[in-house]
């Protein structure tokens, strides 16, 4: 049976970033703001994040997976692009494989809450903290930012593009924690309660693998079926530590 879906779809969260490290330091010191300059889009990988991406590339190159990706899609944010490049250069994909950036894979926009820790939001924007408590993280949209629903809206469009151009291919997407979770929501037809329950179980680890494969017996016309979620075997198999700090609200966008 021919399919409009990829044969395999891997979702990968970027490696540990400098923003993740700065966020941990800010929370440890009880600060209201994360100490890092520039735009969130430009925040690079940390040295450990670079090594995590290298380890993921070596894992695929050594034949642990059933074939390397034929298509590489990435968020335009520096940390995601660096992860995809280091993955490819580490042997995870063909050396001449083009990394296609897609703005629909970008990090969730945090608007006026950008650069604030959780205590910072409560202190500086108590009304937004209360709105989030009442509405929940799925529906709360800070001024100038996005809700999870907004992210899901753009990812539905992305999946239409994937189905149009990459049917039968092995596709890897390198993006962010909320993107991985919202992709699960879209592909598996989840609801708010279920996706937030998955989120509460733990963060998506840096450079972890979430994998779907096309199953012709799933549904009326076949569908993508979840094989594994948040697997960190490539990192555990290397000398690197597994890190799970969530993507952070870092600096101001422009």
Overview of the structural elements:
By secondary structure, the chain is of the alpha/beta class. 40% of the residues lie in helices and 14% in strands. It has helices at 18-28, 47-61, 78-92, 118-124, 126-135, 148-165, 177-188, 192-200, 233-236; strands at residues 8-13, 71-74, 99-101, 170-175, 209-215, 223-231. Strands 3-2-4-1-5-6 form a 6-stranded mixed beta sheet, sandwiched between helices. The radius of gyration is 18 Å and the shape is globular. The N and C termini lie far apart (47 Å).
Number of helices: 9
Q: What is the first-to-last residue Cα distance?
A: 47 Å
Shape: globular
Share of helix, binned: 25-40%
Main β-sheet, spatial strand arrangement: 3-2-4-1-5-6
Strand coverage percent: 5-15%
Unreliable segments of 5+ consecutive residues: 246-254
The Cα radius of gyration reads 18 Å
Topology, number of strands = 6
What labels would you give this structure?
254 residues, alpha/beta, six-stranded mixed beta sheet, globular
Task: Describe the secondary structure blueprint for this structure.
Blueprint (H helix, E strand, L loop, with lengths): L7 E6 L4 H11 L18 H15 L9 E4 L3 H15 L6 E3 L16 H7 L1 H10 L12 H18 L4 E6 L1 H12 L3 H9 L8 E7 L7 E9 L1 H4 L18
Parallel strand pairs: 1-4, 2-3, 2-4
Antiparallel strand pairs: 1-5, 5-6
Helix pairs in contact: 2-3, 4-5, 6-7, 7-8
Brief overview:
With 254 residues, the chain is α/β, with parallel strands linked by helices. It contains 9 helices and 6 strands, in the order βααβαβαααβααββα.
């Amino acid at each position: 049976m021919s399919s409009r879906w990829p044969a395999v779809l891997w979702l990968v969260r970027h490696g540990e970033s400098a923003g993740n490290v700065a966020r941990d330091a800010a929370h440890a010191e009880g600060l209201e703001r994360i100490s890092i300059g520039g735009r969130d889009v430009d925040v690079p990988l940390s040295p450990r994040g670079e090594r995590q991406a290298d380890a993921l590339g070596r894992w695929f190159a050594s034949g642990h997976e059933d074939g390397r990706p034929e298509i590489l899609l990435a968020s335009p944010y520096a940390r995601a692009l660096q992860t995809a490049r280091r993955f490819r250069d580490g042997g995870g994909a063909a050396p001449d494989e083009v990394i296609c950036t897609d703005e629909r894979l970008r990090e969730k926009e945090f608007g006026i809450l950008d650069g604030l820790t959780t205590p910072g939001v409560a202190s500086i924007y108590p009304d937004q903290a209360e709105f989030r408590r009442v509405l929940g993280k799925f529906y709360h949209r800070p001024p100038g930012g996005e809700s999870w629903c907004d992210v899901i809206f753009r990812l539905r469009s992305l999946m239409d593009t994937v189905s149009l151009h990459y049917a039968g291919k092995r596709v890897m997407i390198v993006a962010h924690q909320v993107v991985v979770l919202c992709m699960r929501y879209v592909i598996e037809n989840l609801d708010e309660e279920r996706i937030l329950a998955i989120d509460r179980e733990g963060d998506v680890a840096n450079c972890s693998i979430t994998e779907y494969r096309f199953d012709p017996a799933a549904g009326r016309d076949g569908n993508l079926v979840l094989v594994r979620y948040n697997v960190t075997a490539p990192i555990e198999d290397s000398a690197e530590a597994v890190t799970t700090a969530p993507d952070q609200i870092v600096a101001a966008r422009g």
